[in-house]
Amino acid sequence: MSNYFADNNLLTRKILKNQTESVFEFYGRFKNFMKQRILLLSMPNYASGFDRAARFPNLGLASIAGNVDEDIIDKIAIVDLITVRSDLKKYLIKLLKSFQPDIIGLSAMSFQYQTAVEIAKIIKKFNEKIYTVFGGYHITLAYDIISNSEDVSYIDFMIRKEGEIAFNNLVKALVENPGNFSEIKNLSYKKNGEFIHNKCAENIDLSKLKIPKRNIRIRKSFFAFGKRTDVIETSRGCTMACNFCCMPFMYGRTYRKYDMNRIQKDIENSISNGAESLFIVDDNAFLDVRHMHNFCDMVIKNKFNNIDYMIQASVRGVASDENLARKMAEAGFKFVFLGIENVEVEDIELLSKDKKVLTESVHAVKLLQENNIISAGGFIVALPDDTEEKIWNNFHFARKIKLDAPFFFVATPHLKTEFRKNLIEEKAVTNYNDFCFYNGLQVNVRTKSLSSEQISYILSKMNGKYGDFEYIKFNKIRKIYPLFFWKTILKNIPHMMTNKLRKILYPKNKYINYIAGRKRLIKRMREWLLDKEEVILSRLQELNARENL
Ligand code: B12
Ligand code: SF4
Question: pLDDT tens digit string along 15-37?
Answer without folding.
Answer: 444 454 555 555 555 655 678 99
